[in-house]
Design brief:
Layout (H helix, E strand, L loop, with lengths): L1 H13 L5 H24 L3 H34 L10 H19 L4 H19 L10 H24 L5 H28 L8 H22 L4 H28 L11
Helix pairs in contact: 1-2, 2-3, 3-4, 3-6, 3-7, 4-5, 5-6, 6-7, 7-8, 7-9, 8-9
């Protein structure tokens, strides 16, 4: 709640009205937190609150990720690999975010219905088309940019898996893990590494250790989704996912902790 209040103050003071939707999403997250505790006290479960939190986080990622992923990609491509660049944010993106948010509302309220399933399937298709407009296939030479596209790719994957779960084809946890461990988890690491490099005056290039961190995070997410899909290999995949997850975030602490504790470099050979 305090974060939402601070953000709202900054938006109002700067008349930065384009960021008002961010405040609304933060309010949704606050509501999800309240619902989590209320539901747990009243029924002993917290499924509704969890779904609200996941949905709010995903919409936040659609809005902010939809700005930074194509922007960083465009900057790198213009300088390092001229040619096709991401299509600028426009009406199509607004439609995709709106339709996806509506599908998530249906999923939050009635996840096991055919209506939610079809809405999620439409969301999966639109999100796939959206990420396909960002020229991510042209960024393979720079992992610091490529990882942003890999992380966002878990968004349409999660929609597709959640749609299948609504039709009773797959376990509901598969889509949830694609969204949480995949989209949210990997994107969190992608942005943390990039921001840490930038704010400490380092060159914006993914070192071999940073690439290992990314690989561990992606392996963890895929293994966790796989565990939900394949019951016969559940325990093995679960252990792999947990080990890779720990490796990714401990790796971040080990590599970036010293950088964040030292004074900022005054000269930087930034490339991205």
């Amino acid at each position: 709640m305090l974060v939402a209040a601070i953000c709202a103050r900054e938006v109002l003071a700067g008349h930065n009205w384009r960021n008002l939707p961010i405040i609304a999403i933060l309010v949704v997250l606050i509501g999800g937190n309240a619902a989590f505790h209320a539901e747990h006290m009243l029924t002993g479960t917290a499924d509704l609150g969890v779904r609200i939190g996941i949905a709010g986080s995903l919409v936040l990622m659609m809005v902010i990720g939809g700005r930074i992923v194509p922007s960083f990609t465009r900057n790198w491509l213009v300088r390092e690999n001229p040619g096709r660049v991401p299509i600028a944010f426009g009406r199509f993106d607004v439609i995709v975010i709106g339709a996806s948010a509506a599908a998530l509302v249906a999923w939050v309220c009635a996840p096991d219905t055919r209506f939610a399933g079809w809405a999620l399937a439409v969301g999966a298709l639109l999100q796939t088309l959206r990420i396909g407009r960002w020229a991510g296939d042209r960024t393979w030479r720079e992992p610091l940019v490529l990882i942003l596209h890999v992380a966002y790719a878990f968004v349409p994957l999660g929609f597709a898996l959640a749609a299948a779960a609504s039709f009773g084809v797959l376990a509901a946890s598969a889509g949830i893990h694609a969204w949480t461990a995949g989209a949210i988890g990997v994107m969190t690491l992608a942005v943390m590494t990039r921001a840490s490099l930038g704010h400490t005056g380092q060159g914006l290039v993914a070192s071999p250790m940073t690439q290992i961190i990314y690989l561990a995070a992606v392996v963890s997410a895929l293994a966790r989704v796989g565990a939900a899909l394949d019951g016969s290999a559940f325990m093995g995949l679960l252990m792999l996912s947990g080990a890779a997850w720990v490796m990714a975030f401990l790796g971040f602490a080990a590599v970036y902790g010293p950088l964040l504790l030292r004074p900022r470099r005054t000269v930087s050979a930034q490339r991205v």
